[in-house]
UniProtKB/TrEMBL annotation, chains A, B:
InterPro entries according to UniProt: Aminotrans_3, PyrdxlP-dep_Trfase, PyrdxlP-dep_Trfase_major, PyrdxlP-dep_Trfase_small
The name this protein goes by in its record: Aminotransferase class III-fold pyridoxal phosphate-dependent enzyme
Pfam families: Aminotran_3 (PF00202)
SUPFAM superfamilies, sorted: PLP-dependent transferases
Record flagged with keyword Transferase: yes
Gene Ontology MF terms: pyridoxal phosphate binding; transaminase activity
This protein's UniProt keywords: Aminotransferase, Pyridoxal phosphate, Transferase
Leader sequence residues: none
Native source organism of the sequence: Hwanghaeella grinnelliae
Length: 422, 422
């Protein structure tokens, strides 16, 4: 029987020694009531919370879990490398091997720089775009997330106007809005940040549009600015290359993270020769950026990406999940919208402006052992099987029944209402 | 016989796929000619380069190596934790244990937030100082390093004026300069960044001054701003608390990193109750910030810090190293200045304005198996023994002899001259 007694006790202790009890994207403040905050085990497709409840995990560590938690081949590479060298006074030769491996796989790229956070990679992209021709303005899609540094964090606390003085916003996927933004840059255009596809929180996802992407490429060329694809979230879950390679448009820079080491801490900025000189001029670094263990994990993860049909498997399984949800919703007469790539599913409900139905549904699924998000895109991993999806659909089927019967009593979350303005 | 054939070959490969061949603080561009770039082994006090040359390492991964590379107790904690959970969809209970452990050890602190880079911790400090009362100006000591984000990176490429619009510089250790800077903040003072002691590159270090620290504390109080000690570099190498605790002045925030997990990737921002509400308002996060393995490593590192005489050992060994260098220099008639805490030694030469003698000395020591830095403070670790120092002094003795005989032929590095303006 599901319970959360230990989680509640730990949250009380946490409130004493962590501001707000928890912070960042893994705070459950925006998740349904009773969502567990603390976990003690992660293996394959499953996570176990501190009370011993086991979940099929459709958040995958918010991305990093691509091949299954504790993947044996990746962990063997980790443990072999740990016995040799990790963080030390210089990098190991693996940094060269890994840069070569990434360059060979990412079509637009001629070089690589490795870092820790996705935010490090997008920050380096910003700095390189500005170093490139000494221009300052960067175009960013409204509501797109490019990390939590002051120039891009979604909350205003601690941010000053100057942090965004040279950020110009446009509407994602709208070529005219992009053109207008370029005009307002007034000859001072350094770069264009293009999310590979729209994956904002609390919104349907939309797939990349070739015309929009090509306009972004053409505008960057015309104005001698750099085009940047932020693939931190979607990288290697859509294609075995930069996500925009699938629509035939190549950026100058692409930011990577999350899946790169299947959970080991590493991110990367990839770039072409046009951006190489600017990249060699900036100073960006971190205490653990050159550690060898995450690079060993990344080399093994890339090998698996190249040599196995992990991606085809993920698409098949993701489609089974989506088809199953759609069929259950139709059967029961509840309207849902499943958007985005099958490997990064987003679930929203019709007639649910304040998200109360989606929250109720995810809470009901959670208590039946399936961890979903009602506001953030989800993630699948390559360890998931048809059996996992069958088990998942058993839980979601019951969750649909539950919200059908108690829909009238569902209440919206005040935190979500504050966040979405609904 | 020392050689670097493989290192040179790897550097050529690296030049193809990494901008400038290497980047960040572990690039050897500013190190003496022939300093190896790539390492294949780190164990205890020793690092082995890609050509098989073994060095006693006085850089300690630029800080993280506090207890010796691959410390058995820390690595046991790492491997135990790896079998359970690392980066996942939520933190493990270890985040609460670790916050409690840090709060119990850092006298000024009531709470903790964990992150990856030292730069993450200083950036959060900046944001929290601004969120605290909605004020904007931060005071930073000229030439002090607080990470490589645009507001603080030591190189101008990719930085725009607005990144530092609200940064006011003062001279470290000079109370009047600090007072003048506060006046120029003109009622808009958010925070004062105070390095625990002066540890700029290419300069003698100076120890913290109680009067200066107290003035900084008083000014912060008077103007309802936050006082921040950046202990990323010096933390737990001077005392088992915030470095300024040793002079009796408590900041509101302190930034930590490097040694915290003895090499496992983790950093932290510690704060008091005055700063708690502001800390709970900012949004700062990263894909791997809540991973459990580095927290397990940090808990074990903190246990060793509390329960062993690692610090007394390090001071004794550091003093033996310093005394030995001073005696050798005196014997041979070369003037040197050894500055800073014994656990973070800085070595400079008299009559060496362009650093050619120091570079020649460090290069000669390197080729004899001792890895030193001629421009950055060095680090000792708790695994070093009297035997290591005896072996080190054998190499440095020969290095002093070598530079005495070839001093006239030593040439300054053009890169260093460009960097120092000498």
């Amino acid at each position: 029987m599901w319970n959360n007694a230990k989680d509640r006790m730990l949250r009380e202790r946490a409130t004493e020694v962590i501001p707000g009890g928890m912070y960042g994207h893994q705070s459950v403040a925006l998740m349904p009531e009773d969502t567990p905050q603390f976990f003690i085990k992660a293996e394959g497709t499953r996570i176990t919370d501190v009370d011993g409840n086991v979940y099929i995990d459709f958040m995958c560590a918010y991305g990093p879990n691509l091949l299954g938690y504790n993947h044996p081949d990746v962990m063997r590479a980790v443990s072999d490398q740990q016995s040799r060298i990790d963080a030390s006074t210089g990098p190991s030769p693996l940094i060269v091997d890994l840069a070569e491996a990434m360059v060979s796989m990412i079509s637009h790229a001629d070089w690589a720089m490795f870092c820790k956070n996705g935010s490090d990679a997008t920050m380096m992209a910003l700095m390189i775009a500005r170093a490139y021709r000494g221009k300052r303005k960067v175009l960013v899609a409204r509501k797109a997330y490019h990390g939590s540094m002051p120039w891009s964090t979604p909350r205003p606390a601690g941010v000053v106007d100057e942090d965004r003085a040279h950020v110009i916003y446009f509407d994602y996927g709208d070529p005219q809005s992009l053109k207008d933004a370029v005009v307002s840059a007034d000859g001072d255009l350094a770069g264009i940040f293009a999310t590979p596809y729209r994956h904002d929180v609390f919104a349907d996802q939309s797939m990349p549009d070739r015309e929009y992407a090509q306009v972004a490429r053409d505008l960057a060329d015309e104005h001698d600015a750099l085009l940047i694809v932020d693939d931190v979230r979607a990288g290697f879950r859509v294609t075995r290359d930069c996500t925009w390679e699938s629509i035939g448009v190549r950026p100058d820079l692409s930011a990577w993270g999350k899946v790169l080491g299947n959970g080991q801490p590493i991110s990367a900025l990839m770039g072409n020769n046009r951006a190489r000189d600017a990249a060699s001029q900036i100073y960006a670094t971190g205490s653990y950026w050159f550690a060898a263990v995450p690079m060993a994990a990344a080399l093994e993860t890339l090998r698996i990406i190249r040599e196995t049909k992990y991606l085809e498997d993920m698409h098949r399984i993701g489609k089974a999940f989506r088809d199953g949800l759609n069929a259950q919703a139709k059967d029961i007469g509840i309207g849902v919208r499943c958007t985005g790539p099958e490997t990064l599913p987003m679930l929203q409900f019709e007639d649910d402006p304040d998200f109360r139905v989606c929250y109720g549904f995810c809470r009901a699924a959670m208590k039946r052992g399936v961890y979903l998000s009602p506001y953030h895109n989800m993630f699948t991993n390559a360890a998931m099987t048809e059996t996992d999806i069958a088990q998942t659909l058993e839980a979601t089927g019951a969750a649909f029944e539950e919200i059908k019967s108690n829909r009238a009593s569902l209440q919206p979350s005040t935190k979500v209402m504050a966040m979405t303005g609904s």
